[in-house]
From TrEMBL:
Domain UspA, residue spans: 24-166
PANTHER family: STRESS RESPONSE PROTEIN NHAX (PTHR46268), UNIVERSAL STRESS PROTEIN UP12 (PTHR46268:SF6)
Protein name, per record: Nucleotide-binding universal stress UspA family protein
Similarity-based family: Belongs to the universal stress protein A family.
Length: 166
């Protein structure tokens, strides 16, 4: 069932989205390999195809430090080698790249290390990104309060448009 069954999509697009999307030339798709980010990647690739935009898929290997953990928590598992984390990132980026190929959308993949929200925001600024597309992590309750979510931090601090896909 459509909410607005008799509305022309072009008309709706212009009045809801306006000129923001008309100027989209560079799209940053932030991925962490989760189902939420896979949905976001699909939406981002779709936008790139429509607007002929360049796509950057960005994966950030999160730094583990006392700043990223809840108060009083300690890092106790050092068994995850850096190469495994890097491989996980490369797989997430490859997924986005493979989504773009059949659509005729070229994807530049970027693997970064640091704090995800900060790295995404810095990359967007340095590369003059027009829109950031990312998934919602769906964190709730105490965990979200203590740690915050990457998508929320990006939304609060981005100097460009951000599309968060649930």
């Amino acid at each position: 069932m459509s909410i607005l069954p008799n509305v022309n999509i072009t008309y709706l697009h212009y009045y809801v989205v306006g000129d923001i999307m008309n100027n989209v030339k560079k799209i940053l798709i932030a991925t962490d390999g989760s189902e939420h980010s896979k949905k976001a990647a699909s939406e981002g690739i779709g936008l790139a195809k429509i607007y002929g935009a360049k796509v950057f898929a960005v994966y950030v290997m999160k730094e583990l430090s006392s700043k990223t953990l809840p108060y009083g928590a300690r890092i106790t598992n050092f068994d995850i080698p850096h190469e495994d984390i890097k491989r996980e990132g490369q797989q997430a980026l490859q997924y986005v790249e493979e989504l773009g190929n059949p659509q005729g959308v070229a994807v530049d993949t970027v693997l970064l290390a640091g704090y995800p929200a900060e790295e995404i925001l810095d990359f967007a600024k340095e590369n003059e990104i027009d829109i950031i597309v990312m998934g919602s992590l769906g964190r709730t309750g105490l965990e979200r309060y203590l740690m915050g979510s990457v998508s929320e931090k990006v939304l609060r601090h981005a100097k460009t448009a951000v599309m968060v896909i649930p």
